[in-house]
Amino acid sequence: MKAETSGGRAPSLADQIYARLKQDIFDFRLLPGDRITESHIAERMGASRTPVREALLRLQRESYVDVLFRNGWQVKPFDFRYFEELYDIRIVLECSAVDRLCQRTRDTATQTTLQQLKQQWSLPPTERTTGGPATCAMDEAFHGQLVAAAGNREMTRIHQDLTERLRIVRRLDFTQPARIDATYDEHSAILQTIEEGRAADARLHLQQHIASSRQAVRAITLHMLQDAHARNQNTTEHTAT
Predict the structure, then answer these.
(1) Which DSSP helix (H) or strand (E) runs through 227?
(2) Among the three residues 26, 48, 77, which one is the final residue of a domain in this structure?
(3) Per the domain annotation, does 156 fall within a domain?
């Protein structure tokens, strides 16, 4: 994962540490509930504590870590209820965007967006992207473009924030080939119903699509957490012996 910077500037040491820690959290090398200290991270990263603290404060603002009073930091425990609530908000926003787009099917900008998305998603299986990370990025862009095309800038901003917060679990949906194929089919159906101005059907397809992803992500996340905890326990027992 590349560090995110503004204005095209080169990533600072704090940016690099932030990106590495975030990737460790995403890949379950740092497990939910793990306690970490600035001094330990600084030693591991070969840096002073100042950029480490900057990186941790940024991760705290994004709800990935919590600060412990006089006792370092903790990777935020995994809260499925929190993610379920984010998914609920996402459905509301995207259904609203779909409604708006169905009312604007003759609008040139809407037609352009739909055609661009159809070129990416309404494809036969032999022409589809099969890589998980690439499909995940495309999926995020698909939903983001639909919301942006609805024309409400504040809705777009909130949706972008939700996308960032859900990325830790949502990316797991693209680790299975069947889910990648399903995403193409479901996106294509959503686009077709929007293009035809069938708002009720478009909302239904969208809700079913997000519900399927949500269900798959929960199951995969639980499985990966169990595997990560088992590996961690085995490593601890091996070190002790």
Answers:
(1) helix 199-240
(2) 77
(3) yes
